[in-house]
Amino acid sequence: MPAPTASDRAARAVVVTGATRGIGRAVVEGLTARLPEVWVWLGARDAQRGEAVRGQLLAARPEAEGRLAVLPLDVADEDSVAAAASLLERAGGPPLWGIVNNAGVADGNLQAVLEVNVRGIDRVCRRLGRFLGPGGRVVNVSSAAGPNYVARCPPRWRRFFTDPALARPEFEALVTDCLRGGPEALRARGLPWPGAYGFSKALANALTAILAREHPEWRVAACTPGFVDTELGRRFLGGRSPAEAGMKTPAQGAEVILYLLTAPGIASGGYYGSDGRPSPLDRYREPGPPVWKEAAG
Ligand SMILES: NC(=O)c1ccc[n+]([C@@H]2O[C@H](COP(=O)([O-])OP(=O)(O)OC[C@H]3O[C@@H](n4cnc5c(N)ncnc54)[C@H](OP(=O)(O)O)[C@@H]3O)[C@@H](O)[C@H]2O)c1
Fold first, then answer.
1. Is pTM, for the whole model, over 0.90?
2. Which letter does DSSP use for residue 131 in this model?
């Protein structure tokens, strides 16, 4: 696996987790196509699959050879994230400028979903964040399922999920309790239990605000990519076809992530809609025209 080298001093590196398919893969494609100064680490929990995807992407864009490398990375596994950090250190490539926490699951029990969608973000930021320079970007790929979940919560929990000053210990207490106790722990606290996914994304949005406060030197944003035609997205079709449901392509879903990675003036700690505009944490907002199209005139 050719790792990036520091040959180009202007170069900057971006890590994309869960980039073997779907939106993560489209983010990698977008970065290699549009930003020739960016070196991309294609995160893959199965390194072989990652290499296969890298091969496919390079077949379509051979000029990206040398600035696209696979980063073996299972965000649910502390050792794997630690090994990824060691690899980044050894590779000595261009400075890390962005982390896209895209890896996500909708299937599995509460613990399995939280380990990827919530703890995975934290693990990656803790281990890989130390390579981010000042102004480094973190984009957490969340979902409108988060605000939809919070909308169903009783007032006390709505306040919890929307509190801009939510303390890390309170957040950790809830996550740890739910990891131990499963759905029963939510019910015992008066939290709704429609399934793990929306809860995990509400937590991912709250974690985004916490990370922004803990790291004022970074710009951290959460977003929804919209309803996107991927393996995960198709789980929510409810009998409709992707066209009937108005699903976007992965490339369209990747746009807001590329925007949040690159646009100036992104406020740290917020949650953004698929149109790139700030969105409420406790209710769904219908997206409008994408802000990047407006900016382009
Ligand atoms: N599609 C939508 O409509 C939609 C809407 C809102 C939010 N999102 C969010 O968008 C993100 C990407 O989802 P997608 O729709 O592109 O889904 P997808 O096609 O199912 O892709 C999910 C990616 O995450 C990876 N992944 C899963 N568990 C992982 C782990 N433990 N460590 C590292 N990678 C892991 C998968 O890798 P493997 O190939 O190894 O399984 C895959 O590359 C997710 O966070 C999802 O919640 C999607």
1. yes
2. G
Pocket of ligand 1 (CB under 6 A): 17-18, 20-24, 45-46, 73-76, 102-105, 116, 141, 143, 224-225, 227-228, 230-233
**Residue 141 is inside which H or E element, if any?**
strand 132-141
Mutate to test the pocket of ligand 1, among 15, 16, 17, 21 (most ligand atoms within 8 A of CB): 21
Q: Which residue in 296, 236, 13 sits closest to 106, CA to CA? A: 236
> Is 221 within 8 Å of 270 (Cβ atoms)?
yes
Round to whole Å and give the CA distance between 112 and 116: 7
**pLDDT value of residue 297:** 60
Question: Strand 12-16 to strand 219-223: parallel, antiparallel, or no bridges (unpaired)?
Answer: unpaired
CA–CA separation, 35 and 109 (whole Å):
38
Q: State the Cα–Cα distance between residues 278 and 133, nearest whole angstrom.
A: 25
Q: What is the pLDDT of residue 1?
A: 42
Rounded to the nearest 10 degrees, how much is the dihedral formed by the CA atoms of 140, 127, 122, 169? -140
Q: Which two tokens stand for residue 105?
A: 């699951």
Quote the ligand 1 centre to 140 CA distance (angstroms). 12
Average pLDDT value for residue range 31-44: 96
Residue ranges of domains in the chain, CATH in brackets: 12-281 (3.40.50.720)
Q: How far is the CA of 102 from the centre of ligand 1 (A)?
A: 6
